[in-house]
Amino acid sequence: MLSGHSASVATPITPLALDFGGQQLIGSAHLPAAAEHAVLMLHGFTGNRIEYTYFFVTLARVLAARGIAVFRFDFLGCGESDGEFANISVASQVAQTQHLLAHLAANYPQYARHVLGFSMGGLVALQTALVDSAAMRSMTLLAPAANLAQLVESVASANSAAHHTDRTDCVDFLALEINQTFRQELAQLAPFSGLATLNIPTLVVHGQLDQAVPVEIGEQVAACLPQATFEAWPDADHTFARREYRLQLGERIADFVLSRP
User: What angle (nearest 5°) sits at the alpha carbon of residue 41, between those of residues 35 and 46?
Assistant: First the structure.
């Protein structure tokens, strides 16, 4: 329940499990009555459908209170979904996002579909749009990690000497394995390439105190997109980790989504 916000009773959460190539994607859905819009949330690197200090739960509750359906899923190898974290890749997460959007189109045709990507999820949202921009009505990018290659390399180099795993191609980071194939994929990825072709209404929000993905990265992403609005939030960090910011962010996202025709 959100005190001071438009919900007096929280929308119940519906558990979901979808097959993707013989593996299960585990998700949660918020389905307010008479919703016309739905937001698919894409979590970040090492994250899950709840996100850091329940970031996605708070946003989802605010959106649902505004009459917007929300779908949150764990990517394969993350959270409760099948698979191993060591096997994650941008390409696989793009394919999973396409699968989820197709599922929403087939099973919830009453909803206009929107994508929200946080950090690595923002990078995945952009790469998904490059493959099929018609699958989404709008994008919201929160601290999009176009610098993910540099982030992962800094993590890998800091942990490679001290933390080994049974797999010789992996580095142990907080009990999660980062493999060499993923690092090579990121090194070859051109995160800004093709963005100028994406005529999708996009809201880019970035905290000015973000130490993981500098605010200039979000500004650069927005500058590449023909229909992007960029907002730098003073005093906000990578995860907008103050309750007032998260509630305000949820309302800002709701306003943006509901403004789409």
Answer: 160
Edge to edge, what strands does the sheet with 138-142 contain? 13-20, 23-30, 69-73, 37-42, 112-118, 138-142, 202-207, 228-233
Among all chains, which residue has been given the structure tokens 């921009």? 133
Q: Is 122 left (phi over 0), alpha (psi -120 to 50) or beta?
A: alpha
Could you tell me the CATH number of the domain that includes residue 19?
3.40.50.1820
Count of CB atoms situated within 10 Å of the CB of 154: 11
Q: Is there a domain that residue 180 lies in?
A: no
Residue 179 counted as domain residue: no
> 0.85 exceeded by the pTM?
yes
**Contact of 11 with 65, CB cutoff 8 Å:** yes
Per the DSSP assignment, residues forming a β-bridge with 229 are 203
Kindly report the three-state secondary structure assignment for every residue of 4-45. Answer: CCCCCCCCCEEEEEEEECCEEEEEEEECCCCCCEEEEEECCC
On whether the CB atoms of residues 247 and 5 are closer than 8 A, the answer is: yes
How many structural domains does the chain have? 1
Q: Detail the DSSP E strand segments found in the chain.
A: 13-20, 23-30, 37-42, 69-73, 112-118, 138-142, 170-173, 176-179, 202-207, 228-233
Average pLDDT across the chain, whole number: 94
For 187-201, what is each residue's pLDDT tens digit? 999 999 999 999 999
Domain containing residue 236: 13-147+191-258
